[in-house]
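User: For a benchmark we're assembling, each entry needs the component sequences followed by a predicted structure for the full assembly. Here are entry 17's components. Please fill in the structure.
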Amino acid sequence: MECDKCGREAVMHAAYSGLHLCETHFRVSVEKRVRRRIREDGLLSPEATPEAPETWVVGLSGGKDSVVLTHILAETFGRDPRVELVALSIHEGIEGYRDASLDASEELTAALDIEHEVVTYEEEFGLRMDQVVEDDPEDMAPCAYCGVFRRDVLERYAEALGADKLLTGHNLDDEAQTALMNLFSGDVKQMAKHFDASLGPFPARAESDRFVPRAKPLRDVPEKEVALYAHLQDLPAHITECPHASEAYRGEIQQLLLEMEESHPGTRHSIISGYEELAELAALRYRDDEGSSDFGECDRCGAPTAREVCRKCYLVEAVDEA
Ligand code: SF4
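Assistant: Structure for entry 17:
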């Protein structure tokens, strides 16, 4: 099959657009979508200048998504004095898994010449995920603990590193899955949070905003294309799956979406565009509620929370006592 742009040999066919693309035009198309998303979301504040640059902290796991995002950001903004990029990796304490992906992250950030910070659950919370899985005091799936710990580390370190934005490598499939999961569970508040957390556009952060704004510039690119981009660019991405991966429900949704996409190309894109509108309406509805609710500080760590003790401190104590 030939590239629809130049007639050279195509390396991919996107059923949702009907396009066949060669390696060069495929690379350009992925990068264009990421840059367009950054532009449309207004990610770079007009107030950013070489004298007062913005700091963007990028969550870098070493997997294909975060590696591709970091690579494209460095290619796009590496020489732009209005943006400072910092990569942040988290070691969860998972034997035989995270060390290899951290090596990939080190290799990438050294090649791109960007600052790289590594934080471990062990140093932060005095625990390792392997131990959490063994003790499991709350009888929960590993990812439920891990997600709470990760969110805490990302938010605190983004603040500590002076981040104006926190960027993560969620792709189109991740986002369409999350959208369907929130819809299927009827959780409108979660939809509101999803919008507030990451769907832009980004106004300047207000004094009252509790968290560093999050962005997902890769969210227009399907997972398969992210993987192909990493492969064709020979990026040091680590592809082994975590041994504690446990989101069975997400797996079912993923399968459903793959089947829908196969028979109705473009399904993921239409889910996302409809969902973003719904999530925005939900955010408007619940933002008022939240403004009037008591959002205080955790008794243990001072993090913003609606409870006395935040979820992270509660879980750390449960693991300690197990
Ligand atoms: Fe943590 Fe689950 Fe991801 Fe493993 S798959 S790193 S347990 S969130």
